[in-house]
Amino acid sequence: MNLELQSVVKEYGSQRALDSLDLSIPDTSCLALIGPSGGGKSTTLRLLAGLEAPTSGSIRINGQEIGQNEAERRAYRSRIGVVFQSYNLFPHFDALTNIALPLEKVHGLSQADARSKAESLLEQFQLADHASKKPAELSGGQNQRVAIARAIAPDPDIVFLDEPTSALDPEMTAEVIDAIETLIEAKKRLVLATHQMGFARRAADTVALIAEGKRVEVGPSAQVIDSPQTERGQTFLNACLKF
Amino acid sequence: MPFKSLLFSPDASGAAEPPIKARYTSFFIAALILSLALYGSFAALQYQWNWASAFRYKLKFLEGWITTLQISFVSLFFAMAAGTLSVLCGRARFLPLRYLSTLYVELIRGTPLLVQIFLFYYVIADAANVQNRYFVGVSIMAIFSGAYISEILRAGIEGVGKSQLLSAKAIGFTEYQTFRYVIAPQALRSSLPALAGQTANIIKDSSLLSVIAISEFTLNAKEVNAITYSSFESFFPLAIGYLILTLPIMRLSRVIENRLRFDT
To answer: Which residues neighbour A136 within 8 Å (Cβ) at sequence distance 6 or greater?
Structure first.
């Protein structure tokens, strides 16, 4: 896929989260957004996922503007998948319904088809035994895998993952990373914001380092992470690798 | 010391439940203190009890109690409808509807029920030429309680987390779908304890309808008083009659609250 951000500004009240961000990535199948917390990587991901509109600037994916108004953005969002840091599953539905409901209500599958598709996805992520459990009865890692299953259920063009392992302990992180790696093997297009440098280096082909609302570095993942060219990139990555 | 454990909670926060013996003993002591205080007050009055005369009117009590139950039930139904409508109007795109909802909630909650009853009965119902006082009574209770239900539901809706809305957005739900499948079920669940409490309020508040001569529980008790020249013999059954209805409802409200706490 091809991503093109041109002087994108995003303001929340008087807070400027993105300060004229330019990002041009001609061809990537898995892009990792890295950088300090509050530096703008999650904001970038939300804008790319059409969850919010930029204050100004243009965002193009595969040459297409992602939507001028809410109706267009909603149509765009129904073609992508999003996974959040804290899973954001619906607590009043069981795992199966969390996956099946959007298939039925947004993508027009029959209830039976939606549920059987959800079942096969749960099986794929080793969650078949947990189909009728609610999020409160599942572990963080299990919830995040349900959330990943929900995101990929409608066969989206791109899956966006916003710090998918940041709320998890190391064991659960490993099981979620395994799940994400099956998506990469299945040739899904991914954009993920992450603090896991090792994972970003291994999984992503391209890395964009964003700090203070601006692009710091963009390039092949190994190059950006192993030998950052800018001073800002070096301080950030040194801090990451220190521990 | 075993005696101390009968009267004191094992911890300060109240999270741990005291042992069953302690609960019974302490409840008994509290009830005893209350009874003694009541008994003392009545002893000071030197009141001549005459239960026999009040007992002759037991059917009148029962009729009134049933009327209160009926009025409360029908009022609850329409109050839920009014509250739901008001909370939906409060979220409407069309701004005058929003202000209509705000005015309704603020005016009703800001004035005493008694004033509303008089105003509605002697002015509005009279102007509209409505003769059936039961219809008027139910309407007043529904309008009054609807304002409180509207606030309960609004709090429930606003309590649904931002992350839930973001999630609904991310899977491509429309505004209606988000409300129908994400906001409404969660808001209703978290509002249930307060709604149960409001049901108890309707039952108690309906006693004020006695001022417009609706033969509900309170009015009938007052009438028994007047006929038998007694005073307390009919107020005691009155209090107990209300408690029979409100105590289980408040208990239910507690149970729902506890269950919801464990669910999330």
So the answer is: A91, B263, B264
Residues of chain A found within 8 Å of residue B173, distances taken between Cβ atoms: 102, 105-106
Q: Which residues of B touch A48 (CB under 8 A)?
A: none
CA distances from B180 to A125, A202, B93, B212 (A): 29, 42, 17, 41
Quick: pLDDT tens for A173-230: 888 999 999 999 888 999 999 988 888 998 899 999 999 999 999 999 999 999 889 9
Q: Which of A90, A98, A146 to mutate to test the interface with B (most CBs of B within 10 A)?
A: A90
Pinpoint the alpha helices (H) of chain B: 2-7, 20-45, 51-55, 58-90, 95-110, 113-119, 125-127, 133-158, 162-170, 175-177, 184-205, 217-228, 232-263
Mean pLDDT of all residues in A92-96: 93
User: What are φ and ψ of residue A27, in 5° steps?
Assistant: -155, 115
Q: Is A180 within 8 Å of chain B by CB? A: no
Answer whether CATH 3.40.50.300 is correct for domain A29-51+69-242. Answer: yes
Q: Which residue of B has its CA nearest to A150?
A: B171
What average pLDDT does the segment B221-230 reach?
86
Question: What ipTM was predicted for this assembly?
Answer: 0.88
Q: In this structure, what CATH number is given to the domain that contains residue B95?
A: 1.10.3720.10
Contact A77 B174 (CB under 8 A): no
Any domain includes B177: yes
> In this structure, are residues B228 and B53 in contact, taking their beta carbons and an 8 Å threshold?
yes
Residue B24 lies in a domain: no
- Full residue range of the structural domain in which residue B200 is found: 60-263
| Chain A interface disruption, residue of B171, B173, B174, most A CBs within 10 A | B171
A136 touches chain B (CB under 8 A): yes
pTM of the model: 0.83
State whether A91 and B167 contact (CB < 8 Å). Answer: no
For residue A191, the cross-strand partners are A31, A160
Q: Give A88 to chain B, closest Cα distance, Å.
A: 6
Residue of A nearest to B165 (CA): A88
